[in-house]
Amino acid sequence: MDGTADPNIQVMFQTILSLMEKSQQDVAELRQECAELRAANTSLEHQVREGLQHNNNNNHRSSGFITPVPSSPQLRSRSPFLSPSTPVSVPAFPSSHAHHPSPLGDNVLSSFPFVVSRDIPGFYVVIPAGGAGTRLWPLSREGHPKFLLDLTLKGRSLIQATWDRLLPLASPSRTTIVAGPSHVKTIHEQLPDLVADNLFCEPGPKDSMAAIGLAAAILAHRDPNAVIGSFAADHMISGDDAFLSAVAEAVVVAQKDYLVTIGIAPSHPSTGFGYIRLGDKLPIDEAPNARLVSSFKEKPDARTAAAYIATGKYRWNAGMFVTKATFLLELLKEYKPELHDGLQKIGQVWDNDKERQKVLEEVWPELEKIPIDNAVAEPAAAEGRVAVVPATFGWDDVGDFSSLADLIPAEANQPRVLGDNSLVLTEQVAGGIVVPGSGRLISCLGVDDLVIVDMPDTLLVTTRARSQEVKRLVKKAKDAGWKHLL
């Protein structure tokens, strides 16, 4: 032996050392990302708690809320369910309402220059109110979905909050809702100022393209110069100034013949949302934050989502679209001509009661069921016809019980309670969310991060980590013959 190391062994050690160094670097980066996310989530939770604390202090206790029939929940205090007898107080927006500038997108000094009134002439609000919210079952049901519920116990349902938020821009005369027949009565009860002719009842669910396209076809017939903005009925938004400014800026861009979406600044690498890749800035003086959409991305895995956020070039896709009604129909004619032709037939006769039903029965069943993203947004983005206004307001689609829990304040290491706190007893329990919907006592000992939804007719128990999968239980319940509980 001459003491000289085998070259192969040296190479092997060098390889091992480099792998160890890379592994340590990856771990350090992940720790840094986790630390940043924890800080961001702590800050957000603090803001939400402060915003809701005053309201919670004024709530009264009750024995819980009762849902004898899932399709017609009854009101009790501190309940997510609202009834027609609930006092409806829509905030007034006088013409002298002052605008307070808020940060907006990448240009933090730019907000839309409202002069006196926020009303935008020729702008029509479209609120698609569909879906059953299956990931919030059994709280949300087909007959009474999440947009009709007061999920923060503020006294207003999600659709009422959406109405309140958008009213300054369009007034009741230009605010429209697209909904299914089973929800028309309750929507009118919750929104007494809604003009009857502005509730467009679709015979059956055909996804977002048919719903928004229906509104576009009707409004284009009523007003060929209409600019429409579509905003889901079941999303939560904080920071109304920033929201209204972003919408107003989107209207300016839409008038230049673009399909405009509003991009939400991501607070964490979510795998539950689609993403928008920002393209080049648009040379529009009145819209300093607007950019082209480079591409739309489907819901990514965790590593891909983290990579998106690290670039700073991505925004969450919240499904908000602003465009001329006629331009949307032009895109639809190009990419989905059959769907376009069918919706046009309906739109032309909509305001004729006798003709409407006949054409609906003939045309609606044959319409393609497809989301607006797949139908027009993605192909139009590839041709440079889609723009985005990056915005900074808080947004949540309240997609499952885990995200709902984040919106409800709680004491440190205690579960969130949606309902009467006196009906929930805990010992050595951290995190999670409890919905005491049956009126009976719920006791928890030594369990963390559980989701417990106790309704008069059914009980759900899962974990926050698995709450996205609740819709699988809904399918199983349907297959097993429990459709009356859905």
Our Rg estimate from Cα atoms comes to 25 Å
Strand order of the largest sheet: 6-9-7-8-10
SS content category? alpha/beta
Taken as a percent bin, the fraction of beta residues is: 15-25%
General form? globular
The share of residues in helices is 25-40%
CATH topology of the largest domain: Spore Coat Polysaccharide Biosynthesis Protein SpsA, Chain A
Main β sheet profile: 5 strands, mixed, barrel
What is the CATH superfamily of the largest domain?
Spore Coat Polysaccharide Biosynthesis Protein SpsA, Chain A
Which CATH class of the largest domain is shown? Alpha Beta
| Uncertain spans | 45-77, 84-110
Number of E-state strands: 17
The first-to-last residue Cα distance is 79 Å
CATH architectural label of the largest domain: Alpha-Beta Complex
Keywords: Coiled coil, Nucleotidyltransferase, Transferase
Protein name: Mannose-1-phosphate guanylyltransferase
InterPro entries: GMPP_N, ManC/GMP-like_b-helix, Mannose-6P_isomerase_type2, NTP_transferase_dom, Nucleotide-diphossugar_trans
GO molecular function: mannose-1-phosphate guanylyltransferase (GTP) activity
